């Protein structure tokens, strides 16, 4: 199982939207095309995530915190993607260019567009890694970071 974990915050939760494409549809389509088969939302919205789109070929789950995700998937390796500026000095990280992607049983975890990952609440297990995409000045949008991460996986191959 190859999973993507994203945070959804109020700024992306178009509860009043009459758009026929919503932000989660864009995430889901992109994740599926890039090779994910599990799509996990961490819901940080005040009113609950709104989305009309569900792909039949993706497995879904929703949680309220990263801790709940870690508890729900104890046997999956987690790759925590974050900009180098947001990774605390005492957290060891690997650059994406040096990352060896696990073949299977892995979650690619991204922070929110408003707030990044909080490493203080993330216990790094022995198969887990903090990963950074070395683009010095830019903090990427999640969907861009996700696309770069999976393109690296798909071009470089896996363990
Ligand atoms: C827009 S960023 C977070 C912005 C947050 N306001 C901050 O300043 O830290 C959203 C997420 O994209 C991912 N991301 C952005 N730039 C990245 C990079 N250079 N390397 C790895 N992940 C990155 C991370 O998962 C991050 O939590």
Tell me, what is the CATH class? Alpha Beta
The CATH H-level homologous superfamily: SPOUT methyltransferase, trefoil knot domain
Q: Examine the coordinates and then state which fold CATH places here, giving the name of the CATH topology.
A: Alpha/beta knot
Q: What value does the average pLDDT take?
A: 91
Proportion in helices: 10-25%
Which structural class best describes the helix and strand composition? Answer: alpha/beta
User: Which overall shape is indicated by the principal axes computed on the Cα atoms?
Assistant: globular
Low-confidence stretches: none
Give the count of helical stretches. Answer: 3
β content, as a range? Answer: 15-25%
Question: Assembly state here?
Answer: single chain
Let me know the number of strands: 7
Bound small molecules, deduplicated: S-adenosylmethionine
Largest sheet report: 7 strands, parallel
